[in-house]
Design a protein that fits this description.
- The protein contains nine helices and 15 strands.
- β5 and β6 form a beta hairpin.
- The two termini are 39 Å apart.
- It is of the alpha+beta class.
- It has one domain: Jelly Rolls (Sandwich), CATH 2.60.120.
Length: 336
């Protein structure tokens, strides 16, 4: 059984990246007005998806995905829609996988920043996951928004697992008014989907789940790094918008799900590279704190060396990632 230790949440940067500024005219976030927290009535574990005990042991929790939960009040939905429409001008392309995405919105909107960092929401998510979580230590993973493509023949987002471990997908626009464009997930493992893709087969329809969202402001909470999901094609033009907010477990002993190659394909490097370094340093700090607190008296040098190597591993990963000059790529399984 892996020992667990809680790291302190990383602080949001005190300064904005160069070229970023907050919106002049936006609502002020108020958790009492803008939240309407309602727990999901059911959830699925990673075992329900077919993952083995060995695979689950590498994850911070065995939580898979929730049923529909509520996050925002009607007033909260209106305020968030106001903000994400203003931020639309800052969308970038995710290449062939997804046409319009917003990254770094928390550096452009105080409302979005405060919603994504809200301690009430973090506590709510911690209770759902069953482990202590905090807003993601990479701020580019906070308040990520997906907007509908121009072409109805194009999926909103292809089948993929997320480049981070824990997140929620929130309906910002009203899903009752759209035709098609469902958020869907595959009831199976990533290895199964990879095999289906290699064989050029379509995804088995009977294993595709489309949650029924009662309206905007509702979400699903998931371990997105393990759950294969997509935004299906719209069948009629509609301004569909979803928001994804990322979280990290405060127990930093679990392997890090973050994929650098994906985000370096879309994020500005002057923002991403320092964020990546801080994130990996934060993970290492948690592991070093555990070593300081728990390293026993022993003459076993190999054991001590192994503990030190484990503690600094993420810093070494960050150095290797930052030195890698290869282009990034948004990983996906296609749209079969």
């Amino acid at each position: 059984m892996r020992k667990q230790t809680k790291n302190q949440p990383i602080a949001f940067p005190k300064t904005l990246p160069e070229g970023y500024q907050y919106l002049d005219d936006e609502p002020t976030y108020n958790s009492d007005k803008h939240l309407a927290l309602e727990y999901p009535k059911e959830s699925l574990s990673l075992r329900d998806f077919g993952y083995s005990d060995a695979e689950i042991e590498q994850c911070p929790t065995d939580y898979g995905i929730s049923g529909v939960a509520r996050l925002l009040s009607d007033e909260g939905v209106a305020a968030l829609m106001n903000v994400v429409q203003q931020l639309r001008q800052y969308t970038v392309t995710g290449g062939e996988r997804i046409q319009y995405i917003l990254r770094g919105g928390v550096y452009r909107s105080r409302f979005l920043r405060d919603l994504c960092l809200c301690p009430k929401v973090s506590k709510f998510l911690s209770e759902i996951y069953g482990i202590a979580v905090a807003p993601h230590s990479i701020p580019l993973h906070l308040g990520h928004c997906n907007y509908a493509p121009d072409d109805l023949d194009r999926a909103i987002d292809k089948w993929h697992s997320d480049t981070l471990g824990l997140d929620y997908v929130l309906m910002v626009s009203d899903p009752r008014e759209q035709v098609g464009g469902e958020f869907q997930y595959f009831l199976g493992t990533k290895a199964e989907v990879a095999e289906i893709t290699r064989n050029g087969q379509p995804m088995p329809e009977h294993r595709i789940v489309s949650p029924n969202f009662p309206g905007p402001g509702y979400m699903v909470v998931m371990q997105g790094g393990m759950i294969v999901h997509r935004g299906a094609k719209l069948k009629a033009v509609y301004d569909r918008i979803t928001m994804v907010n990322g979280y990290v477990p405060l127990d930093t002993t679990s392997p890090d799900f973050s994929r650098f190659s994906d985000i370096k394909a879309v994020d500005p490097h002057d923002v991403l590279l320092p964020e990546w370094a801080r994130h990996k340093a934060w993970l290492a700090r948690g592991r070093l704190d555990r070593l300081i607190d728990e390293l026993p008296f022993t003459k076993d040098k190999n054991y001590i060396i192994g503990e030190l190597k484990s503690a600094i591993k993420e810093v070494e990963v960050a150095i290797k990632d930052l030195a890698d000059e290869s282009p990034g790529f948004l990983t996906n399984y296609g749209d079969l």
